[in-house]
Structures are given as structure tokens and as C-alpha cells.
Amino acid sequence: MLLRLRVSLPDRPGGLGQVAKALGALGADILQVTVLEREAGRAVDDFTVSWPGQISAAEARERLSAMPGVRIEGVWATKEVPGSAPDYDLLMHVASEPARGFATLVDALPSLCGAEWSLALADGAVRHASLAAPAEFHLAEPPPRAVVVDADEFRLMLLPVLAQGLHVIVARAEGPVFHRAEVERAARIVDVVAKLAARA
User: Quick one: which of 135, 178, 200, 173 has its CA closest to 46?
Assistant: First the structure.
């Protein structure tokens, strides 16, 4: 079972090793570590781990919460396979068929962002939708820049594509609110796709 864990820990020598050791003792195989931020004496890291057998997010959180000075900010299932280059794969697909750029982007974003679904919205109508996305979606006030919204049921990332009159929405049901590093990554990908699609 692949899980992603977002961990806040003291930013000092050996801190990351402590978390890795604790994960290993619990039977987790660490496949990837992504440093999201280092500020004010703390680091926030995403671990992608393979866990033998089935384990719930709540159980994983409970097991890891005992580490001193460590806060578990989120635990959720993921499908992203570490070691691959999904960003580049997506952009290669878009470059080969730029007319389908936004449809390809919307299909790929849930996996890229550890989310459940994504869609592209224009003039209040869904133009493209990934699997599991709703057929309709209402965006009260489309933002002029990338923002994160913690809604009742989902954590949302809203990514405007102003030149195309679109908003790309990515939704995560489990896990934490999207981190600014995730938003910056997704916004850059959306910008590149928009430029490629404009040339179609």
C-alpha cells in the first residue's frame, strides 16, 4: 500500500534520520522524501512509503505521533510512483497533442498532486473532467491567482488560466491542505500546458 505522509519536524541534524528510523521500525519502506519547506527551525517533508498489508491513515498517524517534536500533518493514500518523472511525461504528451492539452492535464493532475479528481471550468461549465470529478462545479468567485481552499468535503487548489478563460480545480479528500510548494509546482505545469495549447 502506497501512502504519503506529511511530517513537520525540528530542522536539526539527525531529525530526518529519526523519522526514517521510526518508519522503518513500523515496517514502512521509504520510497521518496520531498522537502517542502525549512523555516523557523522546522522542516516540512512529504514521505512516500510502501506499507506491507493494509493500514488506515488513522492507524499510521497514531503510530507515528509518538515521536518527540514531530507533528503528523497528514496521511493519505497515493498513486504516484516515486522515481518516475510524471511532470515530464505529462508535458511530453501535451507537446505531442497540444490541442488536447487541457484534457491531458486534467486527467493527469490527480495522480501528480495526490488528489482525487480535477477539472477545468470555463464560463461556469465543466470543460474537461478527470475520473471521479463531478459533472457540475460552482466556483463563486474565480480567483485571479493560484489559491488553496479548505472546503467542507475537499481541500481545493484553484489554478487560473487567464489567457484561456479557464480555472483548473484539483480536489483532495484525504490528507492536508495543499502546501504552497505543491501549488507552485502545479501552477508552473499549468502555465507550460497553457503555452503549448495556445500554439495548437
Answer: 178
AA letter at 173 = A
Residue identified by cell 480567483 is: 143
Dihedral pair phi/psi, residue 192, rounded to 5°: -65, -45
Digit-coded pLDDT (tens) for 28-72: 899 888 889 998 889 999 998 888 777 777 777 777 777 778 888
What is the rounded distance in angstroms from the CA atom of residue 87 to the CA atom of residue 71? Answer: 29
**pTM attached to this predicted model:** 0.79
Q: Of 136, 124, 123, 190, nearest to 161 (Cα)?
A: 190
Exposed/middle/buried for residue 108 (C-beta within 10 Å: 0-12, 13-18, 19+): buried
pLDDT at residue 14, as a whole number? 84
